[in-house]
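Record type: ASSEMBLY
Status: queued
Input:
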Amino acid sequence: GNSVTQMEGPVTLSEEAFLTINCTYTATGYPSLFWYVQYPGEGLQLLLKATKADDKGSNKGFEATYRKETTSFHLEKGSVQVSDSAVYFCALSGGYDTGTASKLTFGTGTRLQVTL
Amino acid sequence: AAGVIQSPRHLIKEKRETATLKCYPIPRHDTVYWYQQGPGQDPQFLISFYEKMQSDKGSIPDRFSAQQFSDYHSELNMSSLELGDSALYFCASSHGWGRRGTGELFFGEGSRLTVL
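Status: finished
Output:
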């Protein structure tokens, strides 16, 4: 079945540092890949997505590229801010070719703490 | 823009009691998903509905049931509550399912259930 593996946290960075959160996946067919962010006490918000190989999702300075050859979707940001402190979840949904439901399978989440 | 609405936001129950959570999807979204997120855990898929029919089932206990109504809102019913049911319950909605889906889920802010 589908699974997502992401680096364990917490990740602690100083403001303006470079961020990478690794995510790899196992899936049949051609899944869509997502990064969701959860701020303290809030729900899950879609940060970015990519629906096919070599697509790059980007939003709010965050980027991730769908790499089918390495089954990866690493999240990067060039300069983090204190306001980026949150838990980041990598997720996938069954690709359209598999005909599976659009339910998401999540990784375990990576907590990011950005300090001044 | 209208988002996914969940109620109640917070709920406190005793062991062996019953609880009902409600979810109102984004207008014109026909698919609803329920997820359970324990403390420090990733969201676990419980169940989903497409056009009022169950479309997929995950790790939902037999003590739980859910349905989607004609106006597309959904209710999650939990009986014989146990301490381990204490969690954040998310509802998400999307337009379409499987090959007809957009592959993107929109989450509500969650209902926090505490079982004492």
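Annotation: The two ends of chain B are 37 Å apart (CA to CA).
Annotation: The mean pLDDT of chain B is 90.
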